[in-house]
């Protein structure tokens, strides 16, 4: 093989390697370590790692322990939870898609939660934004008195950016569709630091309940 052919072959192989292999991530970006002091004698630490893949994947464990003034360990403060999460975010023009899978297993209480979620947000036109989300939660109660549950949620939000107005509708199905609940809410800024909000629970029933609030915030 001539010198020019070998040089061309090396160039092609280098190009393929740069396209197919992901960039090497720093070890500090892959490691998750977050110790927190929750109370004078209660501590919690999150230990985990991230995987440099097409989906943003992470997994780890939450550990916690608390002690009494006499030095004994408080049984209710024990925490040992395994968790994992995978997120896929991508954007095209003004549309953003997000898919997420999350799992938590509490080894102390023998409970677990699996969450599947998918959302999408986009601009309908210049002065109107819209977003939708769907989620499925599977809860395993283990040896606790509470039973296992499955809940499905669908939410739709319409927002007007230049006025700050947003209207949301949320529907929930629990226990394999035997219980249905819904909420319709409105949020409207009235002035700087002054917001108005209203919500109606189960408007499809004959006895819906409503809530009206005016919030004023002071910043200093």
Number of strands: 12
The end-to-end distance, rounded to whole angstroms, is: 75 Å
Order of strands across the main sheet: 1-2-3-4-5-6-7-8-9-10-11-12
What's the order of the H and E elements? Answer: HHEEEEEEEEEEEE
C-alpha geometry = globular
- Average pLDDT value? 83
Strand content: over 45%
Largest sheet: 12 strands, antiparallel
Query: Number of helical runs?
Result: 2
- How many whole angstroms does the radius of gyration measure? 25 Å
- Structural class call reads mainly beta
Give the helix proportion (percent range).
10-25%
Signal peptide: 1-27
Keywords: Signal
Short description:
By secondary structure, this protein is mainly beta.
Quickly list its features.
12 strands; disordered N terminus; twelve-stranded antiparallel β-sheet; 220 residues; mainly beta; 2 helices; 10% helix; 2 domains
Describe this structure in words.
The protein is mostly beta strands and 220 residues long. The protein has two domains: 29-82; 93-219. It contains two helices and twelve strands; from the N terminus they run ααββββββββββββ. The protein has helices at residues 3-20, 27-30; strands spanning 31-39, 42-52, 56-66, 79-92, 95-106, 111-125, 128-140, 149-160, 165-174, 179-191, 194-201, 209-216. A hairpin with a 2-residue loop joins strand 1 (31-39) and strand 2. It is globular.
Give the SSE layout.
Layout: H1 3-20, H2 27-30, E1 31-39, E2 42-52, E3 56-66, E4 79-92, E5 95-106, E6 111-125, E7 128-140, E8 149-160, E9 165-174, E10 179-191, E11 194-201, E12 209-216
Antiparallel strand pairs: 1-2, 2-3, 3-4, 4-5, 5-6, 6-7, 7-8, 8-9, 9-10, 10-11, 11-12
């Amino acid at each position: 093989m001539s010198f020019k052919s070998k040089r061309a072959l090396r160039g092609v192989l280098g190009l393929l390697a740069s396209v197919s292999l992901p960039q090497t991530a720093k070890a500090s970006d892959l490691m998750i370590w977050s110790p927190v002091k929750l109370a004078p004698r209660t501590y919690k630490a999150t230990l985990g790692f991230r995987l440099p893949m097409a989906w943003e994947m992470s997994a780890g464990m939450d550990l916690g322990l608390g002690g009494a003034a006499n030095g004994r360990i408080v049984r209710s403060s024990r925490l040992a939870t395994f968790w994992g999460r995978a997120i896929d975010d991508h954007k095209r023009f003004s549309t953003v898609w997000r898919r997420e899978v999350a799992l938590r297993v509490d080894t102390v209480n023998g409970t677990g939660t699996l969450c599947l979620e998918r959302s999408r947000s986009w601009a309908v036109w210049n002065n109107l934004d819209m977003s939708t989300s769907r989620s499925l939660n599977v809860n395993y109660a283990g040896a606790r008195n509470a039973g296992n549950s499955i809940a499905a949620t669908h939410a739709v939000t319409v927002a007007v950016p230049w006025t700050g107005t947003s209207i949301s509708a949320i529907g929930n199905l629990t226990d394999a569709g035997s219980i249905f609940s819904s909420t319709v809410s409105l949020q409207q800024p009235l002035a700087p630091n002054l917001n108005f909000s209203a919500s109606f629970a189960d408007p499809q029933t004959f006895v819906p309940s409503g809530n009206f609030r005016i919030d004023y915030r002071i910043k200093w």
